[in-house]
Design a protein that fits this description.
Elements: H1 3-16, H2 22-36, H3 42-54, H4 59-102, H5 106-134, H6 138-153, H7 158-172
Helix pairs in contact: 1-2, 1-4, 2-4, 2-5, 3-4, 6-7
Amino acid sequence: MTNLLKLFISFLKIGGFSFGGGYAMLPLIEKEIIDIHGWMTASEFIDILAVVEMTPGPIAINSATFIGYKVAGVWGSVVATLAVILPSIVIILIIAHFLSKFKDSLYVEWAFRGIRPVVLGLILSASIGVSKNAFIDFKSVIIGGVLFYLISFKKLHPILGIVIAGTIGALVY
């Protein structure tokens, strides 16, 4: 099986079985890219996530684009990006068609309420997975902790936080 087909199938699965957006997809992306296919190391994945976070646009699409490019060049990025968005497009078209019929259904409301904790769990899983590889020493823990505090509680703009972290990282490392 060619890398393009493997990329398509992997990102089609990621796009089809992830709920809650890009952060919720990260554990699935990590498993497919690092554990199953070995297309990159955990360190390379963290580096790509850093670029994905700073790039405008959805995390899942940016991840697919960058990872696809790393694995199979321009065509890899096209295939991975199309594969990750295809399930969402199909699902949205189906939902739009039937929504007026079921919009007041208690079962639909209950289903969405049940999905919320799963999404939170996936986001927490992604955070833990990324932090295992991002916090390489005590200095990185301090930098991450201080910036988390400033962004979360002092309402520092995230872009400014990225600039500060990059500057400190360049000076310290």
